[in-house]
Write a structure and sequence with these properties.
homodimer, Jelly Rolls, five-stranded antiparallel beta sheet, four-stranded mixed beta sheet, 1 helix, about 40% strand
Chain lengths: ~160, ~160
Amino acid sequence: MLDPRPLTREAFAPFGEVIETEGAHSYPINEGTTTRFHDLAEVDVATEGGRPLLSIFRATARPRPIRLWLMERHPLGSQAFYPLSDYDWLVVVVSGDDPLARDNLVCFTASGRQGVNYRRGVWHHPLLVLEPAQDFLIVDRGGPGENIEEQRFSSDDPVLVSV
Amino acid sequence: MLDPRPLTREAFAPFGEVIETEGAHSYPINEGTTTRFHDLAEVDVATEGGRPLLSIFRATARPRPIRLWLMERHPLGSQAFYPLSDYDWLVVVVSGDDPLARDNLVCFTASGRQGVNYRRGVWHHPLLVLEPAQDFLIVDRGGPGENIEEQRFSSDDPVLVSV
């Protein structure tokens, strides 16, 4: 069983950035009526003629118990997710080079006010939400080239998440 | 008095894109558990060595009646706003070249599920929210060069918004 831990900048640093206002660099704009929490993720999408895409993903919950089914990565660009409703959701990444090495899997519980930006090439599980449906704003890469790799877990010995 | 009208893709087309799932191109991903509403805005930030920035703006309400105080534009890049809580908010743009021409001002009421992407160089009013506070995810341009111009309304003859 994979046991989720709270998402923090420090714990997520090997994989990318946590996108959140808490602890972020900020300054007032618009004559003091607005606070700008500035430059919260390293958007890295220009490789091989890439360009930034802004999209919305509408994720639906998997059946419980939640079971990991594959890991994926984007060799040509970063991918940022920010929740559009204030519900907790799950982030699964892996330390080391083998995306299916179960002892190296790390699961975080992100709050509804925390997004993540997966650095280019970081293995991660596709969206895992806890409510029936949750929307996310996504900033990732469009352009030429093959920008996805996947590796599937065996169904014989499933990895379950303890939520 | 400036009278807000509902925000639609068609009405906003001269100024940029409305970022919304309604009517957007979409397709299933993640083995059918997620819908991707794809490429909802033309993120145009590469001019003169620019790069995409991902930030959060926390806007607070102006006193009522809401009065326009200035128009601004970003000559080097687009700027996208998407609300992070489901409250209506206001978008003010202007037809033609004079940002202070009151007969050419256009005010839209955006829903809490609608963002906008101002095309590069489009005059717009800074954030105007209707609730005490509202957060937005922003995708705009960072990099060298002067990327803001402002023009202020005279305080003698204020433009008010009828909300």
